[in-house]
Design brief:
heterodimer; A: mainly alpha; 66% helix; elongated; B: mainly alpha; two-stranded antiparallel ribbon; 2% strand
Chain lengths: 126, 961
């Protein structure tokens, strides 16, 4: 039916790596994990448009049969998803920067160092 | 006569926005301009009132026909009565406020603007002939009240009072909405006049009772009836004109208004009388007791207001049992006049002495005799002394209560007698402790005499109180003219009726208790802890975050790295178990899989997969951030190429540019880390095997998503929604690029919200960068040599600057062809933004800003606004939103889609610049934020969070040579 084994493997590798990075204690690695994860998610949606082999892009030519075009809807959705992903990534980046400027560290170990007030409290009262 | 009606409703709403710029120019004097609207409204309302009833026509427009919500406004007696109150007291209060809010206050324009918006919302509420419109305006009064209470928003008590008022009135307002929906269920319409005319359908008693209970919650919340009485005293943090207007004369009377409105609907219910009478008169007693125990003059008045509201609502309870209610408008007018008057007097006292504490005042009668007389009249009305309107109101109330031969009647009389006695006591106390005696020397030093202008409005109100007190017949005739009932002749003296006897007893008891309190001293009085409901409310509110904190702490979930693995494990394990249980179906599906045919394309796809996988693995394995970033960029570019293989050129273009922009952002942070040598901070040692566990979880998650790709259904194109877009892209959206037509036309709302998200992210970053530093971690010392100065390389500079124009021409090309070929506003916006970043890179941010004086955030806001306007414009012509229009210009077919895309373009340029520039500056050793570039978008007390500007760099930015 489908011939998208390559996409499946690609998504598996990317998502696995992304989750691994997200579980890190270095916030920078978490951020990179997020970038990977949003790309992997976009690929999952893209895969739903089916195997593209032998098809045309979704730009319509007067003489072509729409049945031979790829599905434009997942692409439009991904276009939106890329932008939202960019917004979130940018926000996370600036957040990371802010944490670093405030705390002088960007790792959980650094934030838990003795003598430092609990970051959780500050987060709530701020 | 429609013109009069429209003038009345629209004058405050239209004048409100004008007052903002006027306020900026005129300062405190803007109050005079603010007088225009209430005066216009008052004259229009008077003119409407004087018209014969047949000529008072209803205004009506369809608003949301599907919900049965029409904008209809009916000038009946009740509405006109409240309309006159709102505009009349509004005029006096505005006049008072022009004197009260002197130059020591700020933002006068905003104050009057919100005040007028409130006035407009009030008028819409009382004139509305549709319950849904009434509800919307009802909530608007609450929201404007929130802003007015919190007007001095730097004060903690103003913040607390505003929050408490908003939470209470809005949440009870939701109950009112439920009540309105139930009424709609029963009567099948939201039209108020229809609901009032039709008798309730048979068998609807149950739903009617439920509707009444919900409406009662809304009424009680708005009018501060027990158990919601706590918010009103806390709302007194507002400037005094607001307290006099909203929290005694008008807004809190909305509950009373709605009770009167719905009396014909609910009055026959068995629960009507018990609920209104028991809660209303309990509130009367409770408010009086609390007022007796308070010593802040404003708190005393606030609590007596709570008490009076209790009576005003409670007396409607008599309606169903002892015949129709007479005199409700009389009581309301009486209370409004004397209480607004007293509030204004307290405002004058506060203004002139700097204190409202009864224990520190005295001798004010001699100091300001005019206000002293006014105060005495107001206090006499509060105590219900003869020759004031208060006396007439109280006698009527006592007679009404005595007319009821039931336990409820007895309860009203007991509450009325005891509460009135306390009112006498309170009035005497204020007279003795604020007006008589001598002013303490400490206060005397600060004292300044009030101007005549500020004393005039309360004096006018006091005159009214006296006039109606000696002319009860006129009082009765005036207030009776708003109702439909026959007005009995009112007179000063009825002979020794039971009501008169109770009155005399109340005066005697009040005098006696005052004498006793004087002897024993007032100082021991204070509000007992059990009655401080506002404290409980605050406690509960603060308990919510504390609970979360406690829960997190006790579970040990203080860091993402502790709880994230658990969450991911649970999700992955659950889904894998599900997959395993359906393994037969899965196996059947997988058996159908084909490997991609061996062709050039197949080989390319496998090659790209290999490339991306390598990049991913390297990003995981490598530890140093810069190589890691390189690996991630490999992935990003690989994905862009993969999009090409998937026949998605739009995605490929976008991905390539977004990847560049986001990597640039991350790179800036990484460079900053590296500069401080914080990129390889040591971590605490983890237990053995934790890395293995993480790897296992990640592998599970990856497998899950991979399986998803294989089993998610993707049938032939004819069966999908996509086929519709492919077929209709050219006929309906006049564009050949189906992806672009979906984005800007078919699903334009998505795009509108998407750029809004972009804007929100930009604003969030702005907030993150401009808020005050919280911790006092000392800055890392940076050697000068480690700063990244602006590059001085000539070739690099010429390429970057020289490339600017061609790049933007290319962006323009991409922008215009977007509708028919890959491209569009988003891609073009990224190209422009990146070309600007490139220029900023070689010029240095200060140099860049000097040459390009645009505020990125303004550009972004303009863009979102443009897209919004384009989306909403068709609604003016009766078309659905986002119905794009096309016209032929020569061979081209130009549509409003182009304007919409231009909005997207501007938003992208603005937000991307705003995100990257501050971080760039940080890397250049400059503060990420300075006030002048922030403009209107930052908090007043923000300061640069980053390093202090390094002088030599700030003064001589590179690129100037």
């Amino acid at each position: 039916m489908t011939a998208q084994l390559d996409t499946a493997i690609l998504v598996a590798v990317m998502a696995g790596g992304a989750i691994y990075l997200c579980l890190s204690r270095r916030f920078l690695r978490v951020l990179l994990g997020f970038l990977l994860l949003s790309n992997a998610g976009n690929l999952v949606v893209l895969a739903m448009s089916g195997d593209p082999t032998g098809k045309r892009s979704a730009t319509i030519h007067p003489d072509s049969d729409p049945a031979w075009s790829v599905d434009p809807l997942p692409q439009a959705l991904i276009l939106t998803a890329i932008v939202i992903g960019f917004s979130v990534a940018a926000y996370l980046t600036v957040l990371l920067y802010r944490i670093y400027v405030d705390e002088g560290s960007a790792t959980t170990t650094g934030l838990e160092r003795p003598g430092r007030s609990d970051g959780l409290d500050e987060g709530l009262t701020r | 006569m429609k013109a009069l009606h429209l003038l009345l409703l629209l004058s405050p709403l239209l004048s409100a926005p004008l007052l903002l710029p006027l306020g900026r120019r005129l300062g405190a004097r803007v109050g005079w301009a603010a007088l225009v609207a209430p005066l216009l409204g008052l004259s229009a309302c008077l003119a409407l009132y004087l018209l014969p009833e047949a000529q008072r026509t209803t205004l009506s427009w369809a608003w949301i026909p599907r919900l049965g919500a029409d904008l209809s406004f009916t000038p009946d007696g009740l509405a006109l009565f409240f309309g006159l109150l709102v505009t009349g007291i509004g005029t006096l209060v505005t006049l008072y406020a022009t004197h009260y809010l002197d130059d020591s206050y700020e933002h006068h324009g905003q104050f009057y603007c919100i005040l007028q918006l409130f006035m407009g919302a009030m008028l819409v509420t009382v004139f509305s002939g549709n319950l849904l419109v009434l509800f919307v305006a009802w909530e608007l009064t609450g929201i404007t009240s929130f802003f007015l209470i919190g007007f001095q928003n730097t004060k903690a008590e103003a913040q607390r009072g505003a929050r408490m008022a908003l939470l209470t009135t809005v949440s009870t307002g939701l109950a009112l909405l439920v009540g309105i929906i139930l009424l709609h269920q029963v009567f099948g319409t939201l039209d108020l006049s229809l609901i009032l005319e039709t008798p309730a359908p048979h068998g609807s008693q149950g739903s009617l009772t439920t509707a009444f209970l919900f409406c009662a919650v809304g009424i009680f919340g708005k009018s501060a009836i027990f158990p919601f009485h706590y918010w009103l005293p806390n709302a007194m943090a507002a400037p005094t004109p607001v307290s006099a207007y909203l929290h005694s004369a008008t807004m809190v009377k909305l509950g009373v208004f709605l009770t009167a409105r719905l009396l014909p609907v609910f009055g026959g219910l068995e629960s009507w009388a018990p609920i209104l009478i028991s809660f209303g008169f309990l509130t009367f007693l409770l408010g009086a007791v609390l007022a007796w125990l308070s010593y802040d003059l404003k708190a005393v008045l606030a609590h007596t207001t709570v008490a009076q509201l209790g009576v005003l609502v409670g007396q409607y309870g008599w309606g169903s049992q002892a015949g129709p209610v007479f005199g409700d408008t009389l009581h309301i007018l009486n209370h409004t006049m004397y209480k607004a008057c007293l509030f204004m007097v307290v405002g004058i006292i506060d203004h002139c002495t700097g204190t409202r504490d009864l224990r520190q005042l005295g001798g004010l009668f001699k100091k300001m005799p005019l206000t002293g007389v006014t105060a005495l009249v107001g206090l006499a009305a509060m105590a219900g002394l003869p020759l004031t309107s208060g006396f007439i109101s109280k006698e009527l109330l006592l007679e009404g209560g005595l007319g009821l031969q039931s336990p409820l009647g007895a309860w009203s009389i007991i509450s009325l007698a005891l509460g009135s006695m306390l009112h006498v006591l309170i009035a005497l106390r204020i007279a003795k402790h604020a007006l008589a005696g001598a002013l303490p020397a400490k206060v005397e030093a600060r004292f300044h005499a009030p101007s005549l202008g500020i004393q005039l409005p309360p004096l006018l109100l006091a005159t009214g109180v006296l006039y109606f007190g000696v002319q009860p017949a006129a009082f009765g005739a005036l207030t009776g003219s708003f109702g439909s009932l026959e007005t009995p002749q009112l007179s000063l003296w009825h002979g020794w009726t039971p009501a008169a006897l109770i009155s005399v007893g109340v005066f005697l008891a009040g005098g006696l208790s005052f004498w006793l309190s004087e002897r024993r001293g007032w100082s021991r009085l204070s509000v007992p802890r059990a009655l401080k409901v506002d404290r409980w409310f605050e406690g509960a509110l603060e308990g919510i975050p504390s609970l979360g904190q406690w829960l997190n702490r006790s579970l040990g979930f203080t860091r993402p790295s502790t709880f994230l693995p658990i969450i991911v494990t649970v999700v992955v394990a659950t889904l894998l178990t599900l997959l395993f249980r359906h393994r037969e179906a899965l196996a059947a599906g997988l058996a159908l899989l084909e490997t991609p045919a061996l062709s050039v394309e197949g080989a390319l796809r496998w090659g790209v997969v290999l490339l991306i996988s390598t990049g991913t693995l390297l990003a995981v394995v490598w530890v140093r951030p810069i190589p890691q970033l390189f690996a991630i960029s490999l992935v990003g570019i690989g994905v862009a190429f993969y999009y090409v293989l998937y026949r998605a050129p739009d995605l490929a273009l976008t991905q390539l540019l977004v990847e560049t922009a986001s990597l640039l952002l991350v790179l800036l942070v990484v460079v900053r880390f590296k500069r401080d040598r914080a990129d390889l901070e040591p971590l605490a040692i983890r237990p053995r095997g934790s890395r293995l566990a993480r790897a296992a979880i990640s592998a599970g998650g990856g497998l899950l998503l991979g399986f998803g790709v294989l089993i998610f259904p993707n049938g032939p194109i004819e069966e999908r929604a996509g086929a519709f877009y492919l077929e209709n892209s050219i006929p309906l959206a006049k564009g050949a690029n189906a992806v672009n037509t979906i984005v800007v036309d078919f699903r334009g709302f998505d795009t509108l919200l998407e750029i809004t998200v972009l804007l929100i992210a930009g604003l969030g970053c702005l907030g993150l960068l401009s808020r005050k530093r919280m911790s006092n971690v000392s800055e890392v010392e940076i050697p000068q040599s480690d700063l990244h100065p602006v590059p001085r390389d000539f070739i690099l500079k010429s390429v970057a600057i020289g490339g600017f124009l061609p790049l933007n021409i290319f962006a323009l090309h991409i922008f215009f062809r977007g509708h028919n070929a890959p491209g569009g506003g988003f891609v073009a916006g990224l190209i422009t933004a990146l070309s600007l970043i490139l220029v900023a890179f070689v010029l240095g941010v200060p140099g860049f800003r000097r040459r390009l004086r645009i505020m990125p955030m303004r550009v972004a806001v303009t863009g979102v606004f443009l897209a919004l306007v384009v989306a909403l414009l068709p609604t003016l012509f009766g078309l659905p939103p986002l119905a794009h229009q096309y016209m032929n210009v020569g061979p081209l077919e130009i549509g409003t889609t182009l304007l919409f895309d231009a909005g997207v373009y501007l938003a992208v340029v603005g937000v991307t610049l705003k995100l990257i520039l501050p971080l760039m500056k940080s890397v250049h050793g400059l503060p990420a934020f300075v006030r002048d570039e922030v403009g209107d978008f930052t908090a007043a007390n923000s300061e640069p969070i980053d390093l202090q500007p390094i002088q030599h760099l700030a003064e001589t930015p590179g690129g100037e040579t």
